[in-house]
Amino acid sequence: ALAALSTTPFSFAAPAPRDFSNYTWEDYKRQFSRSYANDAADVHAKESFQASLAAVLHQNGEFAAGRSTWWASINAHSDLSEAEFNAQKKGLSTSRAAHEHALLVVT
What is the distance of C-alpha 7 from the center of its chain? Predict the structure, then answer.
């Protein structure tokens, strides 16, 4: 029985990347229940989100073209700059940007 199992072909379908080509800032805020304390905080978070989205779209284009073996996705941290992420999630030194992002209000 063990020999039969080892010669039986198995096929696992890998999940496909989500298409984020029409994903918007409003979609992100709705999906992750985000609201911000003021317009300046919203604008700052939106800029970080747009940079994250551009990186995701680029990476997924590379994946679709067969030039990469992995794909990316938007997540709950996509509205953080790299400095904010490092400060909040890795405990690295804080920056003015990380402090300003503390104005996030999660509803």
Answer: 39
